[in-house]
């Protein structure tokens, strides 16, 4: 996966180099040097958004392409705020019409999850060997959840246009290892993990932010390993120790 991303961005940089030469030769009249470079970078985010089927990343990448090249494309009258407003409203509509993943609805305080809401979308499944997987999704509201799981192997966490705070204080990792896949778009997610866990943050961010609290860090060689990967688009992910 990392090699694929390096190849992808390497191709974009080569295209940027070619665009610089083409601009100097007069083949890109109306497009400035910096607008071409920015457009290529935004184009990379657009293609990445299409790959992940992230409506927000797709529409806002298109919006920024229009803004950066408004003069050359004759779009000065609708850039920037009308374009950004249309991207925002379009993202909401497409997320409602075409949710990226299947959703489950369960009653609160069942299957090992407690929270401050009446009902939420989540699922806990039993896997081979006695391990468990967790799926939790939040949209258009704010939720605090406390997870109770004696043998967690994997977690799938999604937050869009809302906020999710998930506590792992009463969780044991299956055979000392577990993996969480996160998807945050236009929202915020906070994961509270025990201080003795060794956390590996492999999350990629597009117009977003992800951070791991490294202090206090008191883990030894045989500490449980919790790997977090996924994507943050126009949002934030904070991994905090408790």
UniProtKB/TrEMBL annotation:
Source organism's superkingdom? Bacteria
> Which stretches are transmembrane?
32-50, 57-75, 81-98
Q: Which InterPro entries match?
A: LiaF_TM (IPR054331)
Annotated LiaF transmembrane domain residues: 8-103
- Database matches in Pfam families: LiaF-TM
Keyword annotations for this protein? Membrane, Transmembrane, Transmembrane helix
The answer to whether the entry has keyword Iron-sulfur is no
Name of the protein in its database record: LiaF transmembrane domain-containing protein
Native species of this protein? Candidatus Eisenbergiella merdigallinarum
């Amino acid at each position: 996966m990392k090699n694929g991303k390096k190849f992808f961005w390497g191709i974009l940089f080569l295209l940027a180099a070619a665009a610089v030469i083409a601009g100097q030769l007069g083949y890109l009249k109306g497009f400035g040097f910096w607008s071409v470079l920015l457009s290529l970078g935004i184009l990379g985010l657009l293609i990445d958004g299409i790959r992940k089927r992230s409506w927000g990343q797709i529409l806002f990448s298109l919006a920024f392409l229009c803004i950066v090249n408004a003069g050359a494309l004759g779009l000065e009258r609708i850039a920037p705020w009308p374009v950004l407003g249309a991207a925002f409203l379009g993202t909401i509509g497409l997320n409602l019409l075409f949710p990226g993943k299947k959703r489950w609805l369960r009653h609160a305080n069942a299957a090992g999850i407690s929270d401050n809401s009446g009902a939420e979308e989540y699922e806990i499944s039993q896997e081979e060997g006695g391990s468990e997987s967790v799926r939790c999704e939040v949209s258009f509201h704010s939720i605090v959840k406390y997870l109770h799981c004696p043998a967690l192997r994997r977690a799938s966490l999604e937050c869009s246009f809302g906020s999710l705070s998930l506590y792992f204080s009463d969780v044991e990792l299956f055979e000392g290892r577990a993996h969480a896949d996160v998807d945050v778009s236009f929202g915020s997610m906070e994961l509270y993990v025990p201080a003795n866990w060794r956390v590996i943050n492999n999350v990629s961010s597009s117009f977003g932010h992800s951070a791991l609290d490294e202090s206090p860090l008191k883990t030894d060689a045989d500490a449980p390993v919790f790997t977090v990967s996924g994507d943050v688009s126009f949002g934030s992910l904070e991994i905090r120790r408790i």
